[in-house]
Amino acid sequence: MKLTTKQEKFAHAVTVMDNHSDAFRSIYNCLKMKPESVHRLAAKLMANVKVVSRINQLKAERAARQTLSDDALIAETEAMAAFDFADAFAPSGRMLEPHEMPKRLRAAVSSVKIFEEYAGKGEDRQLIGYTKEIKFWDKNSAQERLYKQRGLFVEDNAQKSGLLSKLPRAAVELIEKEIRAAKAKLGVDPGRLPVDSFPGPEQPKRVSH
User: Fold this and answer.
1) Which structural domain range is residue 43 located in?
2) Are 88 and 48 in contact (CB under 8 A)?
3) Which entry of 37, 101, 163, 200 is 20 to 30 Å from 43 by CA?
4) Does position 159 have pLDDT exceeding 80, yes or no?
């Protein structure tokens, strides 16, 4: 038996949300449900073998996509570097559900969270709606990575063609991190300055008489 439409949507939501209850709220109408009811129903879905199988399939597909060709990796980075957050909303202002968002935009999303909003206190406390939070990957970092992928940092590429080109990528990134930290301590812009821009030993000052 195939999953229902909402079960399929729930499976997709789980792959991009940290919390199963948040995924449930993004698909089902929970305005009149208590938090414990939402948690219970979300847990029930997660106990459904077919739902879990579909979630695992989607996660496997997502993991497989992480092993990308160079062109696909650049396209993924471009999505993070040039996304338009307006694409996450319908014309009415409603935030789109994960499965409704354009694929290119989903590549730029780092997390989605849903917060319950209540009115009243004690027994009169009622769930009145939700506040949704969407976070995107940092554009600056994505753009910098894109520049590197396209070889736009000429100086860096020239430096790495020597000794650094023989090191593992992780080691090169660690060296870059240490260099940026050292520049910051010296009060130098930790951006793309050449190594010879580091302040050298202080020279004796000449005094004119």
Assistant:
1) 5-138
2) no
3) 101
4) no
Structure tokens at 174: 């660690």
Residues 189 and 109 in one domain: no
For residue 93, what pLDDT is reported? 86
Predicted structure pTM score:
0.40
What is the rounded distance in angstroms from the CA atom of residue 162 to the CA atom of residue 174?
A: 17
Q: CB within 8 A of 16, min separation 6: which ones? A: 98, 106, 109, 111, 112
Please choose, from the candidates 22, 5, 3, 9, the residue with its C-alpha nearest in 3D space to the C-alpha of residue 98.
9
- Within a domain: residue 148? no
What residue spans of the chain are helical by DSSP H?
Answer: 5-16, 20-27, 35-46, 49-65, 70-81, 103-106, 139-149, 154-160, 169-185
182 in the same domain as 116: no
Domains in the chain, number: 2
Q: What is the pLDDT of residues 3-48, one digit of tens each?
A: 999 999 999 999 888 789 999 999 999 988 899 999 999 999 999 9
In this prediction, residue 70 has a pLDDT band, given cuts at 50, 70 and 90, of: low
